[in-house]
Amino acid sequence: MGQPEEQRLNELKQKYQSVITAAQQSGVHLTHVHVQNNKLFIQGEAPSEDIKNKVWDQIKRVDPTYSDLTVDLAINSSLSAPASSAGSSVGSSAGGGMQTYTVKSGDTLSKIAQQFYGSASQYMKIYEANTDKISDPNKIQVGQELKIPS
After folding, report:
1. pLDDT (tens digit, 9 = 90+) per residue, 25-77?
2. Which one of 50, 67, 106, 126 is most buried, by most CB atoms within 10 A?
């Protein structure tokens, strides 16, 4: 029955490594890189249309047909090109400046971050404060109560 998924993932990641590297170096925030329907599935957010196009140019250099690849890149202009978010402080406010928010239908962490911080790209702050409840930042449930760090 075909090869194990992990082996397929490694093969495809090797093939498209230059794409993944170029994307990361351009400030693209990759949220998913896995095998789906026997293709490499890459999902993320690019800081601009220009950077998204550069990633696609790299994909076409690797394989003009990209028949074994699915890419879903959104544009998130609040992402800044090459900057790392290393050293983000979680819960650094004295006096427990933590709010709670109940997830409504249609909510995403990005949408909630936009509402509380004025920037959708701050969604990891919320995710990191709620790793006890959320295993994947793309999977939140209606009715879930999330901690919103200040």
Report:
1. 888 898 888 888 899 999 999 988 899 999 999 999 999 999 999 999 998 88
2. 126
Return d(Cα 147, Cα 71) in angstroms, integer.
32
Residue ranges making up the domain that contains 145: 98-149
Q: Are both 20 and 64 inside the same structural domain?
A: yes
- Round to whole Å and give the CA distance between 144 and 2: 39
Indicate the pTM of the whole model: 0.52
Residues sharing a CB contact under 8 Å with residue 112, sequence separation 6 or more, in sequence order:
101, 103, 123, 126, 146, 148
80-130: per-residue pLDDT in tens?
655 433 333 333 333 456 788 888 888 899 898 888 888 888 899 988 888
Burial class (CB in 10 A: 0-12, 13-18, 19+), 84: exposed
CB atoms within 10 A of CB 147: 15
Residue at 89 is within a domain: no
Amino acid identity of residue 73, one-letter, is L
At 116, which CATH number?
3.10.350.10
